[in-house]
Amino acid sequence: MIDFDTNNSNVTKDLSYFMVEKKDEIVHFKGPDSFKDKDGNVIIFEARLLSIDEIQNFNKECSRKNFIKDKNGKVVFKNGLPLYEEKIDGMMAAGLLISESLIYPNLKDEKIMKFYNCYDAIEISRKVFKTASDFNYVLEQVQRINGLDKDENLELDDKIEEAKN
Predict the structure, then answer these.
(1) Could you report the per-residue pLDDT of 94-136, keeping only the tens digit for each?
(2) Is 104 in contact with 142 (CB distance < 8 Å)?
């Protein structure tokens, strides 16, 4: 931990440091080996850094509430309210994270959606990155860029829950 001298009169406390309009941060990364240009070079992808609010919205959009049932299949109630557990659809969240973060290739571009005959922002990532290795590679890169990498042993929903608390 860094110890700061809080009695230092030279320290300027100016809230304007925190009132800066953030611009989209763009990160470049090497795409999967299966995507090459006409000269055989691996395509360089571009992704934008997502805000914590965007990631939290993905969490909400990809959440499903399942009612908790007893051994007889009846919904369990507590204080007059049905109990439920909330689960995140991991594939849905991954697809959304990829399609919203990637700038190049822009998976929401009309040409690419028309080519794959897919107009869903979540499903298009699975159409473009058909193999598990390509999909996982792009997902890992986008997670890393957005601070959701597995090196921290946190999945998308865990990172969002941590940010909420």
Answers:
(1) 999 999 999 999 999 999 999 999 999 889 999 999 999 999 9
(2) no
Confidence of residue 84 (pLDDT cuts 50, 70, 90): confident
Q: At 37, which amino acid appears? A: D
Closest CA to 161 of 44, 81, 60, 39: 60
Instruction: Name the amino acid, one letter, at 42.
Output: V
Angle at which helix 132-145 crosses helix 90-101, to 10 degrees, equals 70
Count CB atoms within 10 A of the CB of residue 150. 11
pTM equals 0.71
* DSSP assignment string, 120-137: -TTTHHHHHS-SHHHHHH
Residues in the chain, total: 165
The two three-digit tokens of residue 149, written as one number: 């990498």
Q: Strand runs (DSSP E) across 19-119, as ranges?
A: 26-30, 44-48, 63-67, 77-78, 81-82, 84-88, 102-104
Place of tokens 């792009």: 138
Q: Which residue has the tokens 């996982």?
A: 136
